[in-house]
Amino acid sequence: MSKKTKSLFLIAATALAATLTYVVVQGRRANRGTIRVSGNIELTDAELSFKIPGRVAERLVDEGETVKAGQLVARLDSADLEQEVALRRAEQAAAQAALAELLAGSRPEEIAAAEAAAQRAKTRLGELQAGSRPQEIAAARAALTRAKAETERAAADAERYAALYKKADVSAQQNDAARTAYETALARQHEVEEQFKLVEAGPRQEEIEQARAAWLEAQERFALVKKGPRQETIDQARARLEQAKQSLALATTRLSYATLAAPFSGVVLSKHVEAGEYVSAGTPVVTVGDLEHVWVRAYVNETDLGRVKLGQKARATTDTYPGKRYEGNVSFISSQAEFTPKSVQTSQERVKLVYRIKVDLLNPRMELKPGMPADVEIITEQ
Prior knowledge:
The protein is an alpha+beta fold.
């Protein structure tokens, strides 16, 4: 090799080295200004379910449909719940009316009715103390005579039908009917005999005492009606009204549980039941996701953690939409180290300690979907 050739070679080598040094330095500066991480798109989603069991009357949304916060997505058959609300509302109205009546006091006709009841109780006590009247005894004896005659007639019929049955002149059913009629008449006769004995003996002392107690109770009732309702009674009526109100509120709440609404605006990601199916409380009906506010869950090494700050701007790209960037910012940095998730391919990477971060992304066209891989570039220096 000539001296001229060697000189040209040295000049070229020096120039190449200078160029490589420049590229590396510039690359490091670029790396110092950004951190690249990878992860998957995640979002806030909710499995919507009823708080009570029932049969799904209607599912109003389908997969892929957008929903607004508060929009009805499904409802249960609520006929029984509506009846329960109507019943509780009627009970509340009745309790309200009862309290109003107590507060108004006793009406003149109520006082008159209580007085008449007390007088009837007094008359009844007097009758029992006087014993059975002759005409009552005569009537009881006549009833017994009629019962005996009926028994004798039924006995004769039963005997006649039994004889005919032996000759096969009547059916077994006719014979049984005659026998049953006799037994019924005999039982009635015994009943009338006991009644006659009671009438003939007159009222027992226990009956007289019961009548006296009823008279005293009627007198007390009359006095209370004249005086009007006691404060304790009014307080009890108020308590019953309050209980009726609570029962109505509970029934109304349960009726509201028969409708299912979206907790936030988003997109129906999946459906889990169809109309007509019976579901238990807590069974997912649809899953709604907030596609307008998505984020990437990613991990940074310990060496890069100090460069990552909350609020730093970031840009994300995906293989699905190459060349398109999605703006965002760092919204969460974990304060606790963890091993790289198992989803990382190599075992060497899985044993490294990393810190979880969350990068919120703007998704106005709702192109980013949950689970979609994304590469994120965090801008650490402006």
